[in-house]
Write the structure tokens for this entry.
Amino acid sequence: MWILVGMLSLLLLGIGLLVLARATRRANDEKLAERVGEAHGDAANDSLSGYQRLANIRNPLLRELCRRLWSAGIEAGPARIAQFAFLWVAAVVLATLVLGLIGIVLMCALLVLAALVVAQRKRSRRRQINAQMPNFLGYLVRALTAGNTLEEGINNAALESVDPIRGVFLSVSRQVRLGASIEDTLAETARIHELKALHILAMSARVNRRFGGSMRRVIASLVDTIRQQEAAARELKALTGETRFSAYVVAAIPVAISLFFYLQNPQYYAAMLSSSGGRIAVMLALMLEALGLFIIWRMMARLQEPDA
């Protein structure tokens, strides 16, 4: 058993060293790119300055990880992700040597917990951006009415806004100043944050650039649509309040009943836990309870997410 654990530890250590070497090389490339950006007069102080690198990441898994972290407001490039992977592998090796297979299970559980935290932060940030979008687009309409171009209007509207939408569109403005097209940059940002409003704005900018037209009317119509969706979402939340409360009660009942029986009679589960079949039944019940809680949590989270 310990021979197998030792071989697994050595394998993980070798993988970690390989990842660290690649991370160091990628970090040097990123530092060089940052110096080139500073030489062009842009210090890249706005948040999430790595947007323009998303299309240049060849590894699809690494590209998806970067997209999820950036959408959660976590500025982490490919090099930093690779360094984190090395640290995690090293922690797995250490936990395996100390705790055996339990250490591997524990580290995997911590990784899943970190993924859930990132997902929750991503949803929270997305809700904040959706809530700020009508006011931002209102600033943009006024800037276009004053005679500014779309690029200038986005920059002015971003300066008038607050985070998180401020950092998102300041990054868009900076990329445009560095030579990227406004429609491609908006489409990239929309894909990162999964915002339909930005997809529509990017398509409108592309059509306007190619065929002409009035961007003010499109944006004003988009603002009205977003406000109508917000009103419908509030009404839906009010109508489903009883259903959501019932879901929380159903999720809490098994845990509450089990805890009540244990507090009233600690020996109630003694016979079950003393046999292998009883322990398997308890583990199966815990897994099913966790699955049910996850399904209910996803249903409630999807209900609260605005479709914009």
About this structure: The chain has three domains: 2-121, 125-237, 240-304. Residues 101-145 form the longest helix (45 residues).
